[in-house]
Amino acid sequence: MPGCYFFVGNGEAGTPGACMVHNPGYDFNDDLIEPAAAFWAQLVRERLASA
């Protein structure tokens, strides 16, 4: 099944929390949850509108 995967930015390399998941130093920026969810919702709306 085709799918989509994207990275939600979590800072510049070398800044606190800016590492890949499954790293003990990872600290997700909770302020990114709302804009990332809105992006996904818009992506789905556009995809469904063209189906």
Write the layout of secondary structure elements.
Layout: H1 33-49
Largest sheet: none
Q: Taking Cα atoms only, what radius of gyration do you get, to the nearest Å? A: 14 Å
Give the mean pLDDT: 82
Helical proportion?
25-40%
Element string (H = helix, E = strand): H
Q: Count all strands and give the number.
A: 0
Shape: elongated
Number of helices: 1
The first-to-last residue Cα distance is 16 Å
**Approximate strand percentage:** under 5%
Please explain how this structure is put together.
The chain has 51 residues and is mostly helical. The chain has a domain at 18-51. Helix content is 33%, strand content 0%. The radius of gyration is 14 Å and the shape is elongated. The chain starts with 32 loop residues before the first helix and ends with a helix. The mean pLDDT is 82.
Task: Kindly list the characteristics that best describe this protein.
single chain; 51 residues; mainly alpha; 1 helix; 33% helix; 0% strand
Can you give me a brief rundown of this structure?
With 51 residues, the chain is an all-alpha fold. The chain has 1 helix and no strands.
